[in-house]
Design goal:
single chain, alpha+beta, four-stranded mixed beta sheet, 1 helix, 23% helix
């Protein structure tokens, strides 16, 4: 009687370990592993106002299409067009974050972003719109 109970506990423990290992593997491949990157802007446009700011962030994307858990994506930012229209407030290449501020002029700014997890560089255009009352 005691050996059957002990054998059942061992089988339950083995099944639990197998289940736990499968959950860990699925979590790694679907939630933690990075399959690409996405560029997100804090707002659609800047305004011709020295107080107008924008944050551009490179987000690592997992298999489910959301932000990869506990991961960041390093990126390099190059201002290709309109560098005289903005000033770089801060740049964190390690975390893939760029903060820019308008200098008060109207125009278009083009930024090329090369992410650690993307095959090709991404190009975004930001319009600097006239001040509204």
């Amino acid at each position: 009687r005691k050996s059957k109970l002990s054998m059942r506990n061992k089988i339950i423990t083995i099944y639990f370990l197998i289940f736990f290992l499968i959950v860990l593997l699925l979590g790694y491949f679907f939630l933690y592993n990075i399959y690409g990157s996405e560029v997100r802007k804090s707002s659609a446009n800047l305004f011709a106002d020295p107080e107008s700011e924008m944050t551009i962030e490179v987000i690592p994307v997992n298999a489910l299409g959301s932000k990869a858990v506990f991961r960041t994506s390093s990126a390099e930012f190059e201002i290709v067009e309109g560098s005289d229209l903005i000033e770089v407030k801060s740049e964190n290449k390690q975390d893939g974050i760029l903060q820019i501020r308008s200098k008060g002029a109207i125009g278009i700014v083009g930024i090329k972003i090369k992410s650690e997890h993307s095959l090709l560089p991404e190009y975004i255009q930001i319009g600097i719109l006239p001040r509204t009352v």
